[in-house]
Every structure is written in structure tokens, then in C-alpha cells.
Design brief:
With 685 residues, the chain is an alpha+beta fold. The chain contains 21 helices and 23 strands.
Length: 685
Amino acid sequence: MERDGAPLSVPPLRIMPDPLVAGCIYSGKCYMIPLNQCMSFSDLYEDVFRTFQFLPSDVIELQYSVPGCEACFLRSERDFQMLFCGARIHKLECVDISVLKIGGSCSNTCSVDSRSEVVDEDDYLGEAFRIEVHKSYLSDEWSSYIHHVGEKFQGAAELREKLRKYAIAVGFEFVFLRNDLDRIHAVCSNVGTEGCDWHLRALSSSANGCLYITELNNIHTCKGVVRTQKHKLLGSKVVKTCIAADVSYNLSLKPREIMSKFKSTYGFDISYKVALKAKQSAKEAIYGSDADSFSKLSWYKEAVLESNPGSSFVLEVDPSTNRFHRLFVAYGGCIEGFQFCLPVLYVDGTFGKSIYKGQILSATGRNGNQGFYPLAICFCDSETETNWTFFFKHLKSLLEPQGRVITFISDRGTGLLSAFDKVFAGHPHLFCYKHLVANLAGKYRGKGNSVMIEEVKKKFFKVAYSSTEKEYRFNLRLLRQEGGAEIIDPFLAEIPVEHWCRAFYTGGRYGIMANGIAESFNSWISLERLMPVYCMLDQTRIKQMEQMGKRRDEAQRWTTELTPKMEERLKVQMEKSRRFSVHYSSPGVYEVRSDFSYVVNISEHSCSCVKWQINCFPCPHGLAAIQDASENVYDYIDKYFRVDMFKKSYSSPIRPITNVDMSSSELLLTLYYLPLRRGHPGGPG
């Protein structure tokens, strides 16, 4: 076709995609509307507003759902276009749009004169009298969980959960007339008293096993359908689904913290009992039950021994009752590496925090960089002499082949002393001075004021840290004067002085005075102590495995002869040694002077200040003498502080364990029963 000799320009034919059908749902009612990209968001919004007869002062929000996202906002033209994109991606022909009323007039019967001015009184009230702006809660979406016939659920469990949450959000209660895996029939709890006709029926599809709503009357004719801060259906089952992620991230979450967070996040009040039970259920869902946990121990023992050669895993069960008794475990990599750590072991007991409490006994070493080195643990019912003897016997079987004299330090826990003397008779055993001073302070309960007790503590510290016998006698006299000989003398008479005072211990104690390393280990596994026994062991193993790997890799980057902390300590001591004058006496023997004079024998690694012998590290006086003799200071430092020894202590890794065959293992058929629970014993006497 031409006009005035020129060809007529015809626009290309635009093929419009098939319209998308939307089901707009509000308060149990639904209407269908075709959508296409020629429409705008404003068109849809106005159509919804008009169809559901909202008042001009009402504010509504639109949300839609696509696979993988239950609530997508529909607030703008961009959101409207993204609706079509999502439908194309997921090949949807129909999409549900939930209509939420988030503000506006108080009811459909409220009206004002068109000439009057609506005044918000909060504009003129003080801050304390204003009503806070409505806060969005995670529970707001619950009211859209049940909305139309044909709605699909993956199973009966999902429908039950969403139905409970829907009832809580809307503000009513229901009862099940039928509650099977393939058929659910629920009615309003007021059906008998007020004849409410709300009801829901759902049937399972034999094709895919999913449940579909086949019948739904979502309109209540009873009174009092209103959302409240408390609800009978808001029990531990519902709360568990809401806090499971929080519990997995923070197993130490307390019930009152759960109550507070649930209120601020979901807008509902729950009781302490519900919070506690919900946490226990969530923990069980994540880590399994205590009963199942004990039945996995036989499999775990075999898995450890197979994957980690050289390990020790002893599992004791009462043969007459098949009830768990106790276990001992030490991994081959830790056993091999310990011989390159300091020859000291910190032994301690701490309680488990799972439903079955139990007690965790541990032996923890110390590496050349002053870090803790977990060696072995024992899980048992309580701290008793029998359990400590079991632990020490198996610990001894690991240590004897290494041929070293090990110095032990403990807090003199219940049953520990007598068990230690049976198994490790003659081995050096130090007592933690912090626990001793706490026991001493207890002797003054009701007999002295806090100021006097603090002075007694300070003077006891000085006695414990005395480096010579003369200094010990001097400090002891001051302690007896402050605390009274009638209390001090009987207390010290029960504690051999060589176990707690530096002046009387003849071996190398590496400066150890307290059981801090053991307490560091107990704190390190604080979350694992909350878990059932199998998970506690497995998660602790993973922690140890990762720690060993990280420390091994870290040590490869060190370029000094000593570990970083000990290299820094050497620098500090060397700086202090500059102020001393050194006078030669005989081969290896020197007099080192400043305000006081000290006798140093570099051949015997000793000084009259005794610090070299006590700390197994040269004191400033010794370093001054070594430099005067033109010797290499590194030749006089204990070998366990060297980087090469540190690397060897982490050269044998803990091997990973696979559990893909656990479910098919015959070892799981052996059922171990939980041990009888006992109360936690008291502390050291």
C-alpha cells in the first residue's frame, strides 16, 4: 500500500504472551484475575482494593509466592515485572497473591463526616504516651498459610505445622476430627458451642504422596476470632520449628533468652516450660537423642580405631544390664605428638550438660608455645576413685612406652588423689594453688571479714611462690600471724609442702602453679558438653583435628629457633639481663651482681634465684652469665620450646572419619541403655 507514491510503514506484529492467572486471596476469600504485561502495578492494586471493598484510609500490601520463596513483595512496577519473570522461570500459569491489611481504619462501620479533619492524637502526645508504630513480625506471614482449595503440602506434618501457625496468627482454635497421614479433617473448636462452620479437609495424592486441600470454608461465624499474645496452640512443637536455627548456632541458648527473642521476633508470649521443651526438641532433632547416642558408641569405637591407627578407645558396658558404664579415648595423632610437648599433664574433671549429665575427665598437655594440647578424655557417671583409677590406668598405658617422667597437676578432685597414688605412685604431682587458696578461704566462713580473708589469700600466694626454704619460713610466719595458727597449721598439715610450694619441688615444673590449662580445655569444649555423648565425642574430635591442622600449618611459617611466645619471652629476659655485672669464678660458675648478688652455674642450668630451675627457662642472671661466657643462649634453653619440637608435636594428624555406612552397620543393632544418673559431686576437699 502506498500513499503519495511512498510505501506505507507497518509496525511489526507483536505477539503477546498468554496471560498469567492470579488468585487474589484475602480473609479466606479469593477471586481470579488475568494478568498481562500491558497492565501496571497500579492497575492491579486498584482492582484488588476495589474488589475487596477496602476503605480509603486502609493500607494493604500484596505478596506472592513462587517455588523456593514463600513471600515475595509486590510493591512497585519493578516487583510487578519480576512477578512475570518468576512465572516464566518456573513455568507457572497461575500464581497466588496474598492481600495483607497492614493499617487503616478500625472497622468497616467506622465513618467520619467528609468535612471533618481526621487528627492523629499521637502527634500531640508526649513520647511516653504515644503508641509505637506497628512492627513487622516473622509470624505475619502465618496468616497466609491456609487460603484456597487445591493448596499443596509435602505431607501431613507440613500441613499440621502450617495449620497450627495459621490458627495462631488469625486467632482461633481448631480440633482434628481425622488426623491421618493421608487424610486430615479439622473444624473450628467452637463448632459445638457456636455452630462455627470453619472447616478444612485434605487428602493425599497416590501419585506423589502430597496432601491437597479438597474442601475449605475459611470464614468463621463464631465470636472472638482475634490474634492474641498467647495461644493454646503455641506449644513446643511450633516454637521448635522457629528456634531450630538459633539452637544450632548457639547450643547454650537459655530458655529465658528464647522467650525474649521469640517475643521480639514473632510477637507472641511463650512460657519457660515451652521454651525449655522446644530447645530440647530442637537439640534432639539436630544431634539425636541421648538414648540413640549411647547406641552409636560401638560403631564410633570401631570407626576411630580403623581410621586412626595407634588410638586407644576403651568402652565398658555392664554385661548383665547392657547399660553404659564409661569410656576412654585418645587419638593416635595426639598420643604420637605428646612426646614432643612439655612433660606435664593437667588432669581435671568437669560435668556434662546434656539431659544425662555425666562427668568428663581429661588429661591435657602443654605445647612449646604455651598452648593446651588435648591428650585423652574419659566419659563416666561421676568423679569417683573407681572412675579416676580407670582413667589413670589407661592413661599410663599410653605414657609408659614414651619413657618420660611426667609431672601432673590437679585440683585434688573427688577420688583423684587416692586413684593417682595407686596408679602413678612416685610421679611428681602438683596441686593448683588457686584451688588451695579457695579451700583455705572456706575455713574462715563466719570467722572473718572480707578484708582479712583477702589478706590471707595474698599471703598464701607468697608462701606458695617462695623460691627458697628461708623465704618460705618467712612468708609462712606472716601468714600465720594474719590468718591465725589454729586455722593455718591444721590446713597445711594435710597438704605435703612439696606438692604446692615452689621451694620444695625438686623437679622441673615449667613454672606451673595453677591448673589453668585444664580449665582452658573445659571452656574450649563448653558447647560440646551440652551435646549427647556420641556428638560430644565426635565434635570434640573434629575440633582437635582442625586445631592440630591449623597449628601445623602455622608452624611452617615460623622462622625463629624458639616458638613465638618463647622467643618474645627470651627478648624480654635478655633486655633485663643488661643491668647485671658478671664475675667469673670457675668453669661454668659466675657471680652476677646488681642490687643483690646471685650464683649462676650455666653447666647445671641453675641460679640461686631458683627461677631457672623452676621455669626451665634461663633467668636474666643466667642469660647475663651465658653471654659473658660467649656462649649461644639458645643452647641453654629447654628443647621443648624449640620450633622443631613444636612441628613434631603436630606432625601426626587426627584422621577424618566417614559415617556413610553407619546406618547399615550391625554394631548399631547393639542397644546400650543410658546409665543411671547421679548428682554432680562436690569439689575438692
